[in-house]
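Fig. S4 source data, part A: sequence.
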Amino acid sequence: MIPAFTLFVAVVLYRIVAGYCGAESTWLLNFSPVAAIALCGAVMFPRRVALFLPLVILFTSDLVLNAHFGTAFITGEMLTRYVVLLFVAWLGLRLRECRRVHVFLLASVAGSTVFYFITNTASWLKDPGYAKTVTGWGQSLTVGLPGYPPTWLFFRNSVVSDACFTLALLGCVALASHPRSTSADAIPVDQTAAAD
């Protein structure tokens, strides 16, 4: 499983570097390939690897980043992110036989949106900085807490990065295997990934 290990190392390093540089480069905030790996993993890897690789990437990089920023190694917010990432991986498994790029892009936007609403709602419920009102919930979905970048910026970066990385991963799959269809909108399905 050299491709999975290589992807693991590359993305963990990417998340760590982006986390260290994120405050100075707002375009790096939530600009990550993890959700795209969760979505496209079923096309590239066997089912177990497709489900667990994005979680292991997120967990490993979270441990390093939490240590760097002086927060607890395991937090309640982490659990919410992992559950939503599992949902995106499940969505990818449902699409493993799909050969249409536009379907994956729609699923990518849906995954980004679900991730945004669930994780920001969890922050609103848990963080004492938000009033437990509709207005406080709206704040958690738009401007966030004072002293931090607005949460809509994280959402924008997630949508763009998830779509870009989804296209990149699907392009790599298409280049690695010979297309069996003449449709420009088709993605070849990796037969080894389909077999568990």
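Fig. S4 source data, part B ends here. DSSP finds eight helices and no strands in the chain.
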